[in-house]
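debug: dumping io for the single-chain case to check the tokenizer round-trip. Nothing else runs in this session.
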Amino acid sequence: MDQNTDNPGAIAPDPTRQPFYRFHLPHMHLNSVFGDDWFALKAEAFARFFGTPLFLVMQTVAVSLWILANVLGFTKFDVYPFILLNLAFSLQAAYAAPLILLAQTRQADRDKAHALADAQHREALHQASEERRTLQARQTELLLDMMRQNTHLTETIQSLTQQIETLTAEIHHRVMAP
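debug: decoded output
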């Protein structure tokens, strides 16, 4: 499951329960190129941790304590020029770079799936809009046809009413004239 980028430890809400994710659901089965196993998920979480202020502060404190302990003579395990510290940084960089690339690749896979889902959503909206326009045009055509028929019926009724009035007047005229 995707993790929130603001808080690396927080798990994102279940997308199946949120209606705005409904177009992303067909892509939820996609696995990353690196898989979704324990190692891949932990590696990505660790790579995300590298960019946090907490990591930078912890690393700065650890390096400062390391240097102070060796310079002030509390210990002699890594004296100046701090070759062991340099080796530790090299080891950290050797693991950090691939882990960061792994996290970026996994994020790119998620972004691609989301972009595809968004494109499909936009296409579905466009298609629904076109269907509504077609339906509206058909309904307008039917309404105009009904108005023409109503006008024709009104004219027919008016003509028949005039004929009835004429016939009624004629009958009254014949009955009254002996």
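debug: round-trip ok. Residues 15-176 form one domain.
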